[in-house]
Amino acid sequence: MITKMTKYTFLLLSSDTEAFLREIQELGVLDITRSRKPVDATSAQLFREAEALRHEIETVEKCDFSRDERHSAIQGKLDAAEAAYAEKKHWGDLDRAKVKALREAGCQLHFYTLPLKKFNPVWLDEYPIAEIERDEKFIRFVLIDRASEGANNFQAPETPVAVESLEELAGQVASLKEALSARESEMEYRKQDIPTLQQAYARKAQHLQRYLAGSKAEKAADDYISVITGFAPTTEDTRLKAALDSKAIYYVSEPATAADNPPVKLKNNWFARNFETLTGMYGMPVYDEFDPTPILAPFFLLFWSFCMGDAGYGLILIALGILLHKTSFDLLGLKKHWRLVTTLGVGTFVIGLFLGTFFGVNLKEISWIPEGLRKLMLVGKLELGGTAYDITMIAAIAIGIFHICLAMIIKAVGITKRAGFKQAISTWGWVTLVVGGLIVAGLALTHVLNATATKIAIIAVGVLSVLGIFIFNKPGRNPLLNIGSGLWDTYQTATGLLGDVLSYIRLYALGLAGGMLGGAFNQIGTMLLGTNPTWQWLPFIVIVVFGHALNFAMSCLGAFVHPLRLTFVEYFKNSGYEGKGMDYNPLTNEIKIENK
Q1: What's the pLDDT tens digit per position in 435-492?
Q2: What contacts 273, CB < 8 A, 6 or more positions away?
Q3: Domain boundary among 466, 484, 503
Q4: Can you give the pTM of this predicted structure?
Q5: Distances in whole angstroms, Cα of residue 231 to Cα of each of 174, 235, 512
Q6: Are residues 518 and 499 in the same domain?
Q7: 405 within some domain
Q8: What pairs with residue 225 in β-bridges?
Q9: pLDDT (tens digit per residue) in 413-438
Q10: 28 and 590 in contact (C-beta within 8 Å)?
């Protein structure tokens, strides 16, 4: 659900704005409308300085030498010096006096390294070449020419050779290694400065927040008075008003409305709260919109579990969640989401049992599995219209139909709440047709309704749907225009709903593929194991562990992407959710340093 907000409007002297924002920052509950990005040169400079401090903290914390410019510069010089030394060893030291004498005589030295297959022995007769070294692959030689005879026309790239001696290059390498080691020791020692750096970063980030908030203040009376607007949760009214009254700050408070476009703070139970991250990935709801998280949470868990489809993989996820919580281990930044990982693991384990798969093993074929559990497994075929279909596929489509029907109902309720029933008549017409039609069909097939009652129900659903979709879809408009609009809406909705329902088959397909792949790795391992295994246990373990690790990773990827698509595309589209709200972001002194 969405937390109720109170709108605060402050009137204060422009000169008092900075002090006021500092006091608000101490309270840490008021969201001052402000830009989330730098708005001018001053804020851009503050942002760069804060980012530089954050970058330095991250570098020192992790001892990530690749992120340290000074370390990288020394490492680059060291790599170049080592490469020059390695190349120089092939050529040896040159007699500088003789090289100087050659140059004074107008001669130049050119160094070449060529593959043997590209070296033409004829060159030894055509050019003044002195061979230096030859091995199985390369030949190194020096070509001498006279500057007076024009540019060297030998068609091959020259090899750069350092003018320094081997001793000098070795000294450079040793010196750079010492400098690199000293820098690494310095960075390790600087870990004790992390608290100071964090404080500096917090001060800079707080200054930036205040500046951005102040930049949004409306100026009045020739910039002498500032008008600042902010929002805070209604639950904080008592504490916030007491603090404001004690400081003699003039303000006006009133309940926030959708027209004010207040920031949104979600408030859900312990279960749904784990999935608020997924809602934020799409976008926060606007203030008068439904919070989709309570619906998103159980369905995403169900979709994920179907796509994983293996109870054994659920145990791995549970263990991973506990590991993330109890240790400093952090896989892909998931440590702060350990509850979500654990919850997904529990769901995967439970649904995996219903799907009858445990690390690729078909549980229904195991004799010691309780008969009651085997009867609950969605394994086998179901006869429909003379054709047999997998029960899991039927279940996936049924889940999709229910999910879309729920989305349509939520859309109708949402429009009714925001704009009134008249604006929602068309939507209610489609809800009556689709949801009402399915209910009537279900009651008729289960013989709850007899033939006469079924006929009456079908007529009632049809009449109400036609009136809502074709006649009163836009109250007050020409009925002929409404009928044309209804026909176009029928074409779009009918084709769209069919495609949306079929999209849910991916739940069945992904679960089936993961189970079959896990079973395939088990079969390969068993084939290698043979009847009287000895050393065959080692390849068996390698194949099974590697295979299931690969299958687990791919299943996790598919189980994240495809349920997210079903939620963001099929569900959000049919529920009318847009996600254009702003996240609640109060001015606070508690600055979190997030590694990027």
Answers
A1: 999 999 889 888 888 888 989 999 998 899 888 888 877 777 777 787 888 888 888 7
A2: 266, 293
A3: 503
A4: 0.69
A5: 61, 12, 49
A6: no
A7: no
A8: 13, 220
A9: 988 988 888 888 888 988 899 999 99
A10: yes
